[in-house]
Amino acid sequence: VSVDLAEVQxxxxxxLVDPRIFFDPEIYRLEQxxxxxxxxxxxxxxxxxxxxxxxxxxxxxxxxxxxxRDKQERVRVFLNRCRHRGVRLCPFDRGNAKAFTCSYHGWSxxxxxxxxxxxxxxxxxxxxxxxxxxxxxxxxxxxxxGFIFANWDAGAIPLDQYLGDMRYYFDNAFGRLYAGGVExxxxxxxxxxxxxxxxAADNGSDLYHFxxxxxxxxxTLQDYGEHMPQEGFADTAYLxxxxxxxxxxxxxxxxxxxxxxxxxxxxxxxxxxxxxAYVKRRYEQMKKLDARVAPGYFSVVGLFxxxxxxxxxxxxxxxxxxxxxxxxxxxxxxxxYVFVEKEAPEALKKFSALxxxxxxxxxxxxxxxxxxxxxxxxxxxxxxxxxxHQLNYTQGLAGDGRPPGFVARxxxxxxxxxxxxxxxxxxxxxxRYWARLMQER
Length: 441
Ligand code: FES
Ligand code: FE
Description:
Layout: H1 5-12, E1 16-17, H2 25-34, E2 41-45, E3 54-60, E4 63-69, E5 75-79, E6 94-96, E7 99-101, E8 108-110, E9 115-117, E10 140-144, E11 147-151, H3 159-163, H4 166-173, E12 182-184, E13 189-193, H5 197-203, H6 210-213, E14 238-241, E15 250-255, H7 260-268, H8 273-286, E16 297-303, E17 307-311, E18 319-326, E19 332-341, H9 346-359, H10 367-378, H11 384-387, E20 391-392, E21 417-420, H12 425-439
Antiparallel strand pairs: 1-20, 2-11, 3-4, 3-6, 4-5, 7-8, 8-9, 10-11, 12-19, 13-19, 14-15, 14-21, 15-16, 16-17, 17-18, 18-19
Helix pairs in contact: 1-12, 7-8
The structure holds FE2/S2 (inorganic) cluster (FES) and fe (iii) ion (FE).
């Protein structure tokens, strides 16, 4: 590789990033092998595949896959590619199938991946051992809180261990997991944009841009602005990154609602008595959660390498998920999902999904602003003078970067490594881990 990865790793400790990692084709090709074939990647949520034969199609890196619930009720993940000549087997986003039949010569495969049908099989004169030509299966599939992840690396650490300290933030920040589980929509939006996938991933722990890039965006969650803490959320905000040498996930959190319950009840009242009762019940449940994380705390959890969960805090707003699929060194397809609480009344589910879409989606107020900046960032990538200079990731590197008002003591005992929220500690951890994986054969 033309970029010296050991040097990249050394520089990140000084807060510098080589811009070539965002466009170099060799780096990109190596990432497909060393990042996307080794890390646990989100593929589906249990609620997307409730019945036998339910499937969705997805990507793991650039590889298309089928995620399907087989006859034994087990979720399996297969490369979405016919073994005969390699045609994409399933061309649909989702559905229910007893078998997948290729559109070219008609080979068909069961939901367990077995090759079950070959037209004119006699022409092979008994020379085709069908048991050797089943679909290529992703060896590891595992779920956490209903979120299903898959991993091409049969020797990878278990998902639980991979999530590490972030499990705590899932359990508490997404206290929604306790609320009888969540229900996830099929993909709501897909947008192809011109930037490297890491630009999106490193923005996941960047609170620095929020007030500038998203100036007025926050107000678009109905009446949200007026319920924000007087002093803003900045002095309660913190960034948690995983401790240790494992994956560099991150969680950004801060108090975003002065009185979350009042805000939620105020909105639930418009939706009727059952929504009000539900919100009250949820606030009773939330008393069991860690008060440093919920309720009233927004939380943005980024899991390495390519998924982000955005929870603005209200029970009356769903949680958005951004999933970034690499499509080339300078192209990324963002898939946007929303999940809501499974046991909420129908009216509240609908309203919550809409609330989140108004805020965090391509038709909302936040996401287009980010993407515009990421494309601007990419626009001069590769030009000779542009690549000659390192990028700055030094925020919070000297000292702890904490402003005097930061009440760090409330958070320091939380799992992971805690920094002030406006810090490059998140991206630094990410590029350090990225560079390590990229060097491991
Ligand atoms: Fe699928 Fe021939 S390519 S049957
Ligand atoms: Fe943003």
